[in-house]
Predict the structure.
Amino acid sequence: MNVRDCMSSDVRTIAPDATVQDAARLMKALDAGAIPVGENDRLVGMITDRDIAIRCIADGRGPSTTVREAMTTADLQFIFEDDDLQEASARMSDHKVRRLPVLNREKRLVGIISLGDISLGDMSVSGAALCHVSEPGGPHTQH
């Protein structure tokens, strides 16, 4: 089964020059913990509720901080829509992330896939990823 068969295609993006308050409001409206950051029709980063808490609030920065200042850009992970679910699961597991932006081969954002989406497609594939994603450590630790 391919990523396109399970991904959410109604993904919303936020601009890097928007504020983290704008991002938090969008997350609230969408009931989402992560929003892809897009600029000129390209994926340039991801911003998560954790990025806002750790990179802004914990450092004393306010709601007018730009998304660009808080977003994750280093080692930005994504998956192609025609990759299989096992590749998505492996990437999530390796990088300890629960969702990945989905791009087409022209590198345009076409969706987002989460562990939950994968579990709807193939529970055995998502189970292994969940075990590894939930382990402490990885690139998003607080230290």
Notes: Residues 20-30 form the longest helix (11 residues).
